[in-house]
Amino acid sequence: MLYWKYVKILFKSQLEYRTSFILLSIGQIFVPFSVFLGIYFLFQRFQEIKGWSLWEVALCYGIIHIAFSLSECFARGFDGFSRLVISGDFDRILVRPRSTIVQVLGSQFEFTRVGRLLQAVVIFIIALAKINIEWNVLKILTLLMMIISGVFIFTGVYMIGATLCFFTIEGLEIINIFTDGGREISQYPISIYKDWIKKFFTFVIPYGVVNYLPLLYVLDRSDKVFYMFTPLIGILFIFPCILIWKFGVRHYLSTGS
Amino acid sequence: MRSYLVLFQMRFIRGLQYRTAALAGVLTQFFWGFMYILIFEAFYASSSTPQPITFHQLVNMMWLQQAFLALIMLWFRDSEIINQITKGDIAVELLRPIKLYEFWYARLLAQRTSSALLRFLPILIVASLLPYPYNFVLPPDAFSFILFIITLVLGVLIVVALSMLIYISMFYTLSGTGSILIFGVIGEFLAGLIIPIPLMPEALKRIIYFLPFRYTTDLPFRIYVGNITHNEAIISILIQIVWIIILYIIGKLWMNKALKRLVIQGG
Predict the structure, then answer these.
(1) pLDDT score of B177
(2) What is the ipTM, given to two decimal places?
(3) Among A81, B6, B21, B243, which residue's beta carbon has the most beta carbons within 10 A?
(4) What residues of A are in contact with residue B198 (Cβ under 8 Å)?
């Protein structure tokens, strides 16, 4: 498949600068880890946050950060999309007889995010070991769906941000509110926030269906079994994003450079 | 000295040109500030024991942090300086009848101040219109305000001196991204930018008080909100001055050493 060819080529090219690759990957461990250390210290002082314990929050944190680092690695093309518009390289993509989405996705990957992924996985595993959960197949399935769903949501938001570039040319810092900001907000269960924030991040950008609702099921905090299916809504979120993207492509005016 | 002032002035005026970027930055930083406040509010609501800093004081620290972000964050990178080192343009810089350390220092300082001046007022004004307890308020007394200004200015001098060390280290590593990232993250944690220092464990606090990082942001902001007594503030000003001198000497000596073994990377 074309997409995997892109992955292979860019992976090889990034490994050419091996030292810089390794240093950056290590650096990527430090950034989110300092955030987690902060959370850890806060729990030492406050013990709990609105009824959630440290390791329950850590589970939430792990899932969101795994999803975030995966989408940062594989959807980087959309994140840095303004580059393609400014340089006019998007024209080239348009004349090729392949889907624009696959080509933009394939234009860039950030494999150094493996550092971020690694620290998220470690915290995820420690959290699972510290919490007493009565495991069954459905719960494991739910956890997997939460991660996949998270990747879809982050990618969808990146696509919306990229679509805006068609109209503004320049990348917008504002969209970080919904990607980086969404990540920071949803590393805690969304129920700790004020009502309107909860509603916004459940019904508009559905981070809540990734971290909060399915966690209720996994941690046996609620007997509503249908919560385990809520991550599916996050996957559906990608469809309106694709429509918005297609709308943007139709209104694309080349910068000509 | 005069030439460095002119340099500062030119960079400063140049920085003021980026007004749209500043507006976007104001909106983004406002959101981040509000988000941190919401998280801390949930923590404060979960515990009834009194904390070393009240929630309203914490809110004000958060707003100050966002308003003066350009002054205080360590990872603020000057890509021109990085390019000079990695691409070899530094050869031209060294030909100028000017001291490189002071030249870079003036320019980094100007960038930070111009960027902060464009942003801090809108953020603080909007924040002061919010309802209690989210609103930004004036400091408890006029003397606190004066102490705040003094420590903030001295704090910026420390931040720039610290970031100079990152740039000098690039003479050896030649690639900025990795070292800036790691140094920046550790420095910001120790400066209390991830979580405020009053909320940290006692043992960690003791270590932090021996390092220069907290004197950049934690000190001025806590003086502003009234979390630090005037006596302690005055002693801290002396410590700040000592740190500025120490960091200046280290940076100066290190740079001279680095320039002696400097290899120009072609051009």
Answers:
(1) 67
(2) 0.85
(3) A81
(4) none
